[in-house]
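Task 17 of the worksheet. Students: predict the tertiary structure of the chain below and write it out as structure tokens. Keep your answer in the requested format; marks are given for formatting as well as content.
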Amino acid sequence: MLLEFKVRNFASLRDEQSLTFFADRHREGRSEFAVPEQKKPALAVAGVFGANAAGKSNVIRALAWMRNAVLYSFSHWPPVPSDGRPGVPRDPFLFRQDARDDSTECSVEFIFKGRRYFYGFECDDERILYEALYEYASAKPRFIFRREGADDFHFGRSFEGPRKTSTQMVRPNSLFLSAAAAQNHPMLREVYSWFATTLQVATDNNYAERLDTTLQWYLDSDERHRRFVDILLRAADLNISGIEREEDADDAVWAEAVQRLRKAFESINTEEGFVFREALAPSISAWHETDDGAFKLQLGQESSGSVTWISMLGPLVHTLASGGVLCADELDARLHPIMVELVIRLFQDPRVNSQGAQLLFNSHAHYLLGRYPEHGLHRDQIWFAEKDHRSGASTLYPLTDFEGRNDQNVELRYFGGRFGGLPFIDESAVERLSREIQRGVHGPATD
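Model answer:
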């Protein structure tokens, strides 16, 4: 489970921003999880709301970038920067004169296999400046390793496994955790696994990867896995009774070419994934049952809402069935409000969410802030992002920073400007646009 994420100097998140999954108090009827050495439970759901360009997506992008740094910095980042290209492909806050001079920091506190960890690092364009891993074996954390600069390593008494081999392999611009996992380090491979298998990100960029996950679950030989996907596929009222992959003689060659392209892009791109709709969609079909029989449509012939729901099912089922964290960028994009609420309800319901699954999402969907929504979001699960238009920097803050009761209509107060996070519309723009249009119709106006 994810307990806290902090980031500084990533995209519009100039100053340190923090998002936590700690509940303010226990509430009956919603999914909550015990945290070692902590009285407050962990939440299953947290949502970030705000205007366009307020920085909502940058929170999930930053977490995805941190994940990619752990997974790929050793294997994909270039060993020696060349042609002015940064050794660390980061995305710092650019709206200032010294944009490239300031470092980027990010850290996570999480639970994996019953153990509570803190891991974080700091970097600039060329190298890793600091990296550390701690474990909460008691109320006070004890350090497992700490790295200061390129090759100054310190190891705690709880560090288990080889040291010399991994430290010799690590480059100035790769994380020690990434390098040690590549060497199959017995202790650090476990921590690496949290990023690799437990933390999932759903954005428009990794559509193909998500779609492939759905197919793996649906076509798995385990009948139980297929039923999971089938239940949610039919719940959406899309008139789709099943999905399948159509293969021909060229599919294997084409799939291999797509994978090579993916790896090539991963080595030069810091984003979470890449769009390969054209490569995969034609080989996938959905079955529809009508009064005249069963008919098959290629995925490209389906509505964007149907395709979005199908591609979400894999990560959704995987997270709920196995536990973990699903980070969904713009959860409400191309999905009906009832379907968005269904996703949140699945994580909120203790009967469904018995494996410690969590959902972090951002959204423009103000209806999720209503007084009596089906999903049952509480005040400690609602966050806002707001951008200072003078500096371009985003701020992230929770609804619990404001006084109020849980039964109040948050949606109404939000639109009243009580919590910020609203777009500012220049009403004079309508009048100015009207004058410009009239000039085009009637010729230049005379003063």
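Marker's comment: The mean pLDDT is 85. The chain has two domains: 1-203+329-447, 205-307.
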